[in-house]
Amino acid sequence: MKMALKELRYNKKKYILIEVIILLLMFMVLFLSGLVNGLGRAVTSSIELMNGTYFVISDSAEDIITVSNINAEVYEQVANELAGEVTTLDIQRMYLQKVGEEEKINVTYFAIEPGSFIEPELMEGISLAEADVENPIILDDDYMLEGIELSDTVIDSSTSIEFTVVGFSKNQMYGHTSVAFISTDSYTSIRENLNPHYEVSYHALVTNDEGIHDLDLEGVVIDDKQTVIENIPSYSAEHTTITMVVWLLVIISSVIIGVFYYIMTIQKEKQFAVMKSIGISMGQISIMIVCQVCFVACIGALLANILNTSMSFALPQTMPYHLEFTDALGVSAAFIVISVFSSLLSIIKVSKVDPMMVIGGEQ
């Protein structure tokens, strides 16, 4: 390690240049990783943040919650037989309008029972259960960018039913659309207005009680939260594709670092030849190279994480960016490990250096 640090100090200009390249490459990978997570959360965050573990979905829905249909009889059976609390969930994409404006705003309704355990945490306002209005609604904070405020009235564009905004919640997205939480009664009013013959049913039942697996239920399946998330339309295709791009960039960036070190190794053949001729073992030289690569990669990853975190605070709210500490740590660790493995090419090159040939002893 001491020999590696001496080499870094002696050739500091070259290593600073490599450090800058590592910083830029790592920053690019981390930023793209944040975008991947942000896009994923734009599809799934409302389900991810929901305080529910198990979802009862009709077996014909193929684990897609929005095409499921649970009738009232199944709900009553589960509510009567299950020891823990169970609640209903309906999901419907519609359009909202501000009073006095014709522009339609995309919205995904999450119809829930007021006061149930899946009601979202609020950043401001009151819950559906506390609201003393006919049709309360809790909106994702993105609607604030549309100029909507607490106590404003918004209208369902298909039925002209008016809702009063009673609260805002953060990071509530489903299928790239901001979510609005309404009561089951309000949702029933919308469905009856659109279809006079509508019969009450639910997309899913939600519970945290593991005893749900012990109930004898026909025509339904019990899915955990991750299964529901993975079967949200477009989630798997988007997430898999962009994640592959991220990890491909990690590998390519690490290999680029290995190539830089290989070029530097070629330039320093005589230096390595002299080191061998004075008795420094190949094992010591290998340790020196690995320590140099590891040190430079670690510093670059650390600086890239600091820069990425600092920049994330300046990004606009509309940008789907989200990077967890564990994700950043995983990407950084992979980058460092692959960089170290890339240095093996340099070690192989050094192992083939013949001091007699390089320093002219062959004459």
Features:
single chain, 363 residues, alpha+beta, 6-stranded mixed barrel, two-stranded antiparallel sheet, 11 helices, 49% helix, 18% strand, elongated
Brief sketch in words of this structure:
This protein is α+β, with helices and mostly antiparallel strands and 363 residues long.
Walk me through this protein's architecture:
- This protein folds into two domains: 2-44 and 236-358, no CATH class; 70-202, no CATH class.
- It has 363 residues and is of the alpha+beta class.
- It is built from eleven helices and 13 strands.
Total E-strand runs = 13
Q: What is the H/E string?
A: HHEEHEEEEEEEEHEEEHHHHHHH
Q: Uncertain segments of ≥5 residues (pLDDT<50)?
A: none
What share of residues is helical?
40-55%
Shape: elongated
Beta-strand residue fraction: 15-25%
Mean pLDDT: 84
Distance between the termini: 35 Å
Put simply, the count of helices is: 11
Q: SSE layout and pairings?
A:
Layout (H helix, E strand, L loop, with lengths): L1 H9 L1 H38 L4 E5 L11 E2 H10 L4 E13 L6 E8 L11 E2 L10 E5 L12 E4 L5 E8 L3 E2 L2 E7 H11 L6 E2 L1 E4 L12 E5 H6 L4 H33 L1 H9 L4 H31 L12 H18 L1 H8 L3 H4 L5
Helix pairs in contact: 1-8, 2-6, 2-8, 2-9, 6-9, 6-10, 8-9, 8-10
